[in-house]
Amino acid sequence: MKPSKEELIKYQGIKNAAEHFQVTEQTVRRWLKHYGIYHPKKNYGPKKITKSIIQEIRKLHHDYTQKKLGEKFGLTQAMIGRIINNISHKTDIHFGANAGLQVGYKYD
What we know:
By secondary structure, the chain is mainly alpha-helical. Among the domains are: about 5-35; about 50-85, no CATH class. The protein is about 45% helix and about 0% strand. It has 6 helices and no strands. Helix 5 (about 65-75) crosses helix 6. The longest helix has 10 residues, at about 25-35.
């Protein structure tokens, strides 16, 4: 059951309210938003990274540290690492008919 606006405010903090009402922090945020008192930070969250920036990062990563690249592009070192290692913003890999790709244990 959703608590009143006054009850939520009384617990001063999303984490404290979540613990008291035995719900997740996301549920408390949803309640606060419903009452019009949830104001998340502006410009917080993932940025839109263009394909040209991704290509440039992958091209430059041999010459610069991930930290330096992060400073240059306004990203975290962790995000630079995910881009370089193709974990985030994956590049499509296409194999042509003559790629010679062999899968299995034995190649004859």
